[in-house]
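Researcher: Structure prediction, please.
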Amino acid sequence: MDGEWNDNQPIYRQLRDRVVALILDGMLKEGDPLPSVRNVAAEYRVNPITVLKGYQQLVDEQLVEKRRGLGMFIKPGARNLLLQGERQKFLAEQWPRVVATIQRLGLTLEELLDSANRRSTSDTTEEER
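Model: Predicted structure follows.
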């Protein structure tokens, strides 16, 4: 997790969002333990209550479960639940702006697909290096 905080959002919310990103990116998998509250608080120099509040949001969203005496763990199905929510959020909030930009620029479906294919090919080429 990144140790930089911004002033636009409470730190506990930023912690929650960072854990969500780690789950979506596959860096934290179902069944994996979350870093301990104490370790995160010490490493990022934040109050343990702040870390606990961020973790509690994940519990409330049913992405993480508490195991008494063991810690907190990513629940089965957490990534799929997050993907479903993120997809809906993208389609509702970002996609309309993307479509408006595409229309404003007069881009065709063929141009968009060609661009996506070129990017996909260049990403694959870079990974092979």
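Model: The domain at 11-76 is CATH 1.10.10.10 (Arc Repressor Mutant, subunit A).
Researcher: Thanks, that helps.
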